[in-house]
Design brief:
With 503 residues, the chain is mainly α. It has 20 helices and 9 strands. The strands form 4 sheets. The protein has a 3-stranded antiparallel sheet. It has a two-stranded parallel ribbon with strand order 1-2. A two-stranded antiparallel ribbon has the order 5-6. Strand 1, helix 1 and strand 2 form a beta-alpha-beta unit.
């Protein structure tokens, strides 16, 4: 009878949750989904030296934020738990000793000093480091004597000295390893803690994992895992090794060259839809070339055989473009709600918003999302709508030519007689406007009426108005700005700049 498809992701709580965890989880979830299977979350916390307080909760929080949901896990339980390795220690010791009894593993009493000396000798002889099998030939009597004397030990797997171990990888075909080049891996450490290899295989078996979809960096460990399955007499899962996420120089993605924390992407205003879309494109492509898609579309049409092994480059510019596409697609009210914390962080709005403030924010978000790459960028670029006191930028020697030209046009505009006339005429029109709220169409008409009455080109009229209303040579459309900030603030800006620059 064919087994029910079960996949998993098994992160370690050793710091901020890694973007690679979401990448691998996404492909495991999609594979389980299209095969009517189940996806589970397991926490591999056997490395107590690297354990980080709070990291496990961050894994839950970030994966939940992304919508990468699991059917079983440490937080929700399930039929084959516990799903946290630190709660399964008794299991691993029992299975390690079973292998010893079967003759598939052995007690190793080598001291750290002997192992250090062995490594130094191997290094001097330019040999590959690895255990030399010293304790593999101990007699039963020698082993019993050492155990009775309380000598510390580890349990090692007996790798075959001859032959080959073959990984039948779904994406890569057969990968062959010579057994003679694989040392006897430690399964149970001297402190009773299992190594990754033992815990991983035991847990995958007991949890019914049918397909192990993980990063290609684990390929070199897989022969040991296959030998463990053989030693136990268990059916092994299908192995599928995904391409690593890479920096632009093709090295494995690292925090020295790229942000790798999922928290960083959340805190910097990337949408979950944008980040998942980007991660999906890292190793997958739709047959029709579609680049913008939802998680549900990805899951519904997923085919593991379409995964590309080309070594995807983690390009933040591409991610920004994809995120922009999703911001433009998202419902405006929802997007505004997501952006509010970023406006609050800059002090532009308080903890509670009036209906008018919320409406204004929606308009600001609608305008800026057309070109912004993140929610944070939307807030960063909205200063012109909130800052009423400003001065014209200073001209400095290190400015590039284009920037200098724009600022010079501001100064020329407010010093030119046509510019001064335009500013004063526009001030009169704003003062005469009958209500505090200025309708968008009325804002446009106020500007065009000023232009027509002055009888000069737009540059001669609108640049001086931009100078006094924003202090910047480019940016927000003036009619949007005026309509959003209203009559009182528009007047205040005009009068302040007129006084400041003697216009």
């Amino acid at each position: 009878m064919e087994r029910k498809v079960r996949t998993r992701v098994a992160p370690s709580p050793t710091g901020d949750p890694h973007v690679g965890t979401a990448y691998i989880a996404m492909f495991n979830i999609a594979f389980a989904h299209v095969n009517n299977g189940e996806f589970i979350l397991r926490i591999e916390d056997t490395d107590q030296n690297r354990y980080t307080e709070g990291s496990e909760q961050m894994i839950f929080d970030t994966l939940n934020w992304l919508g990468l949901n699991w059917a079983e896990g440490p937080d929700i339980g399930g039929p084959v738990g516990p799903y946290r390795q630190s709660e399964r220690f008794g299991i691993y010791g029992d299975y390690a000793r079973q292998l010893v009894e079967k003759g598939e593993a052995y007690y190793c009493f080598c001291t750290p000093e002997r192992l250090d000396n062995l490594r130094e000798r191997q290094k001097a002889m330019k040999k590959a480091p690895g255990y030399d099998g010293h304790c593999r030939s101990l007699t039963k009597e020698e082993i019993e004597a050492k155990l009775a004397a309380g000598e510390p030990y580890v349990i090692r797997l007996k790798m075959p000295y001859e032959g080959e171990t073959v990984i039948h990888d779904r994406l890569r075909g057969d990968i062959v390893f010579e057994n003679s080049k694989i040392d006897d891996q430690v399964l149970l450490k001297a402190d009773g803690f299992p190594t990754y290899h033992l815990a991983n295989v035991v847990d995958d078996h007991l949890m019914g994992i049918t397909h192990v979809i993980r990063a290609e960096e684990w390929i070199s460990s897989t022969p040991k895992h296959i030998q463990l399955y053989k030693a136990f007499g268990w059916e092994q899962p299908e192995f599928i090794h995904m391409p690593l996420l890479r920096n632009s120089d093709r090295t494995k993605i690292s925090k020295r060259k790229n942000p790798v924390s999922l928290n960083w992407y959340k805190d910097n205003g990337y949408l979950k839809e944008g980040l998942l879309n980007f991660l999906g494109l890292m190793a997958y492509s739709f047959k029709d070339g579609k680049e913008i898609f939802s998680l549900q579309e990805f899951k519904d049409t997923f085919n593991i055989d379409n995964v590309s092994l080309g070594g995807p480059v983690f390009d933040l510019v591409k991610l920004g473009w994809i995120n922009n596409q999703h911001m433009r697609l998202k419902d405006l009210k929802e997007l505004t709600e997501l952006a509010i914390p970023f406006f609050q962080a800059k002090g532009y709005v308080g903890e509670t918003l009036t209906d008018h403030e919320r409406s204004s924010l929606e308009r600001i978000v609608e305008i800026i999302r057309e070109h912004a790459h993140t929610l944070k960028e939307i807030a960063d670029e909205s200063e012109v709508y909130f800052k009423d006191e400003y001065t014209l930028p200073e001209l400095t020697e290190d400015m590039d030519k284009k920037e200098r030209k724009g600022i010079e046009r501001l100064y020329n505009g407010i010093q030119d007689e046509i510019g001064k006339k335009s500013i004063k005429l526009f001030l009169e029109k704003i003062e005469a406007y009958p209500t505090e709220d200025i309708l968008l169409d009325d804002a446009k008409k106020l500007l065009t009426d000023t232009l027509e009455e002055i009888g000069e080109g737009p540059g001669k009229v609108y640049m001086p108005l931009r100078a006094v209303l924003t202090g910047q040579p480019k940016g927000a459309d003036l009619y949007n700005l005026i309509s959003i900030i209203g009559k009182a603030r528009t007047l205040a800006r005009l009068k302040r700049m007129i006084a400041l620059y003697n216009i």
